[in-house]
From TrEMBL:
Short name of any one Pfam family annotated for the protein: LRAT
Descriptive protein name: Lecithin retinol acyltransferase
Organism: Ramphastos sulfuratus
Pathway: Cofactor metabolism; retinol metabolism
Catalytic site: C161
EC number(s) reported in the record: 2.3.1.135
Transmembrane intervals: 195-228
GO CC terms in record: endoplasmic reticulum membrane; late endosome; perinuclear region of cytoplasm; rough endoplasmic reticulum
Membrane topology: Single-pass membrane protein
Length: 230
């Protein structure tokens, strides 16, 4: 029996998102330890704040719980294969993360600000302007995050770190990163008249998504493979 076209499309989208978005640590420091405690000034953070760490290809999100603790959703294979909390609590390596994405397993974990941000700059409540009067109380946001700590399913499209924080702070799980990517794909699907047209949309997506030069070539080829799949 043939698979539902919508299911196939969703599966393809997740694979494409995986190719262009999964890059958890800064280039050249993938297995190095995070900065030492005290690297970040946590005095400016309040319990329930939404912390945002821009990366080259994506943004990582978490909810500040106070006392240098951040709850955040991370793809991770380890909770699916062991119950050893000491092993699970260690900083998630790229291997664990990638296997978590592939197997769609993750955990909402609590780490220090240093482990969460991994040397990146931190924006605080930067998304509040997009939700206006939907912002929940800080204590409510923190409590929601704490209740969800533990193993969870993972999906780049439906349940990623951005869905987690927007549910906690604004009451609705949404992901602007994946929405933007999907809108680009819709543009491609609307016009399959030629490979060249699809390639041009791919070039446009580089501008829309702000992808780094290192990902330019894969991004151009994404529309081509979508055209072939169509």
């Amino acid at each position: 029996t043939m698979k539902n076209p919508m299911v196939q499309a969703a599966s393809l989208l997740e694979k494409l998102l995986f190719l262009v978005n999964v890059r958890p640590l800064p280039a050249g420091s993938r297995e190095e330890p995070p900065p030492a405690p005290g690297y970040y000034d946590t005095s400016c953070f309040k319990r329930g704040d939404l912390l945002e760490v821009p990366r080259t290809l994506f943004v990582h999100f978490g909810i500040y719980l106070g006392e240098n603790r951040v709850a955040h959703l991370m793809p991770d294979i380890l909770p699916a294969v062991t119950g050893d909390r000491q092993q699970i609590q260690q900083v998630v390596t790229n291997k664990r993360l990638i296997l978590g994405v592939i197997t769609k397993t993750a955990s909402i974990r609590v780490d220090t600000v240093e482990d969460f941000a991994y040397g990146g700059s931190i924006l605080v409540n930067h998304m509040d302007r997009l939700f206006e009067d939907q912002v929940l109380g800080s204590e409510e946001a923190a409590r929601r995050a704490e209740k969800l700590v533990g193993a969870t399913a993972y999906s780049l499209l439906w349940n990623n770190c951005e869905h987690f924080v927007t549910y906690c702070r604004y009451g609705a799980p949404v992901s602007f990163q994946t929405d933007k990517f999907c809108e680009t794909v819709k543009m491609i699907i609307r016009d399959q008249r030629s490979v060249l047209a699809s390639m041009l949309v791919g070039l446009a997506s580089i501008v829309c998504l702000g992808l780094a030069p290192s990902t330019t070539l894969p991004t151009i080829f994404i529309p081509f493979f979508l055209w072939m799949a169509g």
